[in-house]
Specification:
GO terms for molecular function: 3'(2'),5'-bisphosphate nucleotidase activity. With 338 residues, the protein is of the alpha/beta class. It folds into two domains: 205 residues, inorganic pyrophosphatase (n-terminal core); 125 residues, Roll (Diaminopimelate Epimerase, Chain A, domain 1). The chain has 13 helices and twelve strands. The strands form two sheets. Strands 3-2-1-4-5-6 form a six-stranded parallel beta sheet, with helices on both faces. Strands 7-8-9-10-12-11 form a six-stranded mixed beta sheet.
Length: 338
Amino acid sequence: MNSADIATIKSLLATPQNIVIIPHKNPDGDAIGSCLGLSKFLDCLGQNSTVVAPNDYPKFLKWIPGNEEILNFERENSQSKRLIEEATLIFTLDFNHLSRTGQMESYLEAASADFIMIDHHQQPSDYARVTYSDVSMSSTCEMVYNFIDSLDGVSKISKDIATCLYVGIMTDTGSFKYASTTSQTHRVVAQLIDKGAENMQIHQQVFDNNSPARLHLLGVALNNLVILEKYKTAYITMSQDELDKHNYSKGDTEGFVNYGLTLDGIIFAVIFIENKEEGIIKISFRSIGDFSANEFAREHFNGGGHTNAAGGRSDFNMEETTERFIELLKNYQKQLNS
C-alpha cells in the first residue's frame, strides 16, 4: 500500500466503525483465514467487526479460531443484510469484483459504507475507496499481514491471528511449493510461527481429516483422469451422480485438480465438476510455467484467477464441455509444447 492509502485507513480506523468483512462465494482457506485474521486484529483496535460469508465452506476450515462467529448469508440472511446496511466500513478480501459474492452482490452495491479491498487476483474493479491489490503476492493472508504491519500492528498479532493467517498462506501456496512463494513469504510465516502458529497441527487439521467417502471419491476422480499427451494436458471429470454416490460434502474435491500436474510432462490440469443445482459445470484450471490458466479461463469459460490457478464455468453438459475444451486445446498446442 502507498502512504496515501495507509493514511486513509488510519483515519477511517481512528474512530469506532461498524465493520463487515466479506470473503468470496465458496470461500477457501485463504479467504476464511484472511477474514478471521483481519477481524481479530480489528477487534484489538477496539473496532466492531463481523465476517459475513456468502455461503457455506468446507468442514476442514471450521476449526479455525473465530469460525463460530462467521455469519452465513444464506442461512442468516436477515441479520447479514442488516449488518451490511448498517456498516460504515466494508472490507472485501480475496476477490476483486462484487459479482464473486453471488447473491450478496446487489446488497453490497447498495451499501453506503466505504470499501477497502485486499486481494491478489488479476484485473481488480474500482468499487473500493482503498484498493490494496498485488498479483505478485502468495495469498491474501500475506497481504493482511502486510496491512497489519503498515498500521504498526505486528505486536498485536496473537496466536489466533497468526493461526488464521498461516492457514491461508499454507493453502494458497500449495504448502509453499507454488512460484508465488517468495523469501518474504517465508519470513512472514516465520513471524507467524514465532507468534504462536503451530505449523504441524495446522497442516494436520487442514489436510489430514479426510472422511472415507472423500478418499473413495478421490479414487473415482483418478479413475476418470484423461491424459492428452500431445497437449501436455490432463483432465478429470466428476458427474453429479458420482458425487452423490459418495456422499459429497462441500470441499471434498478440493485439490483433486492438482493430481494432474504430478504427472511427468503435464503442464496443464483441469477438473470438470457437474453441479445440477446450479445447472453448470464448475471448472478448475492449474498450470505450470508460462502457460496462463487465468487467460484460458477468462477467454473461454467465464472465469479467471491467477496465472497458474483459475476457475471457470460452462453452461453446457459434461460431454459438450469436454469436447469444446479438447477442441480449444488445438489452438494452444504450440504454447503448451514450447
